[in-house]
Amino acid sequence: MRHFDFKNGHMHCEGVSLSDIADQVGTPVYVYSSATFERHFSVFTEAFKDQDTLVAYSVKANSNIAVLASLAKLGAGADVVSGGELARALKAGIPGEKIVFSGVGKKPAEMHAALTAGIHVFNVESQAELDVLNSVAIEMGKIAPIAFRVNPDVSAGGHEKISTGKAENKFGIAWSSAEAAYAYAATLPGIKVVGVDVHIGSQIVDLAPFETAITKVGGLIKRLRAQGHDIQSFDVGGGLGINYGNNAVTPPQPSEYGAMVKRLTSDMNVKMIFEPGRMIAGNSGVLLSEVVYVKDGEDRKFLIIDAAMNDLIRPALYDAYHDIEAVRAPGSNMTEVLYDVVGPICETGDTFTKRRMLPEMEAGDRLVFHSAGAYGAAQASQYNTRPLVPEVLVRGGEYHVIRARPTVEDILAGESIPDWLDAP
Ligand code: LLP
Description:
The chain is of the alpha/beta class and 424 residues long. It has helices at residues 18-25, 34-47, 65-73, 83-91, 108-117, 127-140, 178-185, 207-226, 254-265, 278-281, 314-318, 408-412; strands spanning 4-7, 10-13, 16-17, 29-33, 53-58, 77-80, 99-101, 121-124, 144-151, 173-174, 191-197, 233-235, 271-274, 285-296, 301-305, 324-326, 336-342, 351-359, 366-369, 391-395, 398-403. The strands form three sheets. Strands 4, 14, 15, 16, 17, 18, 19, 20 and 21 form a nine-stranded mixed sheet that branches. Strands 5-6-7-8-9-11-12-13 form an eight-stranded parallel β-barrel, surrounded by four helices. The protein has a three-stranded antiparallel sheet with strand order 1-2-3.
């Protein structure tokens, strides 16, 4: 479901014209719909309304504090993977007890901050990490609640760079050592075992791998309980894919995913934890950009736009497809042209798409990349000293700039020239 539609010849986000945002804020800019965020979150919670559940939104997908605050209002928790994300979640009003901390490389200072915040659970990924967490907790006079993230060795499709549940991936405790890890954890005074966690990958468009992993981990939960561990929660991670508009794949509806998880877990007597990211944020946002030049190549036409791979890296990094649409509604007599859509960065990889049929455009025309609400702004950089792309949140007929475009002075502010270079 997208809240991006044409009205009066111009694409709108809810009640706000994207042309107005482009005029007032400039381009490139990310534009998000509050209504879509809310709808996607509610669809998810709807599916599990009669079960003890924590929906810990995966902050990495879109970590702007205004986005987090709007989800917090709906009761969302947060899945964080760094001290920085933890600080964002807390600042946005997500209570510590609704925060889960994932990631393979947590450092003592991050553990300290999370224990101070009283987070719900640490998803621990190795025995080495567990030992450090135990020491930090003892030093602070606290007990750290933990689940082990187990690696179920399940292949979950998607792009190889975002698949995580295979034995060869760096994630989770090896399946064959899971029970020994729990037995060891039970001996540590700073640790309390509370659950089991699994996450097999992202943009998964088929329920089967989820089903295999949940069933496998369900068996492990039974064995762990038989061994005396008090397993209270089962975190099934995130990973549900979304429709990017290329019609190549139709991901399951969240309600179908919900029904499947429910069917497999209803008799387990556990609190279910979910870490959805893309499913909530992906179709809630677009990247709005302007055509700078149209250029005739030897054998093709290039649309050179003012957004680049530093603003939206998914096509360059994962060959990802994003629907592209003109902001001005194409008239009935419009011509369609095959374009390569490229950014201004000095790399051939700065190509959003090749040979895409789009309405004929000229310099100054605006276009959007759909499904850019997840892993768009969150993965942006300032490569080529291009200021970090700003973000706008729309709600009904109003909008707010939730991250301002930095100036070049802002970018340079943290850099300094040593005295020995005789700075100017
Ligand atoms: N939980 C854990 C432990 C994760 O590692 C991730 C994503 C999630 C939850 C959320 O997964 P989601 O529901 O969003 O699929 N940058 C890539 C995606 C990387 C996903 C990393 N982990 C992309 O643009 O496609």
